Amino acid sequence: MTPSITVHFLTLPGTRVDRIFWVLEELGIEYGTRCHVPGKGGIPQSLKDVTKLGKSPVIEIDGRIASETGSIIHNLLAAHPAPGIESSPSNDSYFWSHFSEGTMMLHLQPSRVLGMMDGAMDRRLSKEGAAGAHALYKLFNDNWVTRNVQAQLDFVEDFLSRNENFSGSDKLGEGDFMMAYPLNTLAYGMRAGDFKIGPASKKWLDRMRARPAWSRGLKRMAEAQKAQAKL
Ligand SMILES: N[C@@H](CCC(=O)N[C@@H](CS)C(=O)NCC(=O)O)C(=O)O
To answer: Residue 56 in contact with residue 49, Cβ under 8 Å?
Structure first.
């Protein structure tokens, strides 16, 4: 019997769920969607009812809840073999899947959250307090985020100038699906222009973005958000 799959996600700009939509479309799997809209208190109760962690994305497969993007993608690929896509990860795919969340997002997410807080400091603190907070944020960004993220992008560029995909072969693997998110955020998303992205990385990303399943995934995500907005 075909499993029943529902994708749960937070309606945040530039959210990680686009990788899940992309994979599901690549694998040709049928799925339903459920958006959770963050309220004034942050994560909505509807998502907390689905997962105690209150993090997005989450998928529900035959009533079982699975979270962590890398783990979700790994299990989807293993369960749904498709031409041109690895069902079991190469060593490179495995490495890059971990690198995506464990190294790149480890730097990008705190940077984004602290950036949002930094933006609110002028409203919340005295002039002197805000100046101190801005200086601290700048120190964090310059000394930790920028230096590390640029080194990571250079590392990615070196690999992609020698390999067709993050899988290390002509097939796509979990490393490719996972790495597309931080690279897309840095090249075309909220951080566009903040870092130098090499030509091989840009070419790889543009090739992924040109895949019909990528566009179908984005369309499906937008439709789900539109339907939610009408409720
Ligand atoms: N490592 C987790 C990270 C999940 C995560 O942080 N998701 C973000 C959205 S992209 C989230 O739920 N943010 C809401 C919050 O932290 O309050 C994964 O890959 O799924």
So the answer is: no
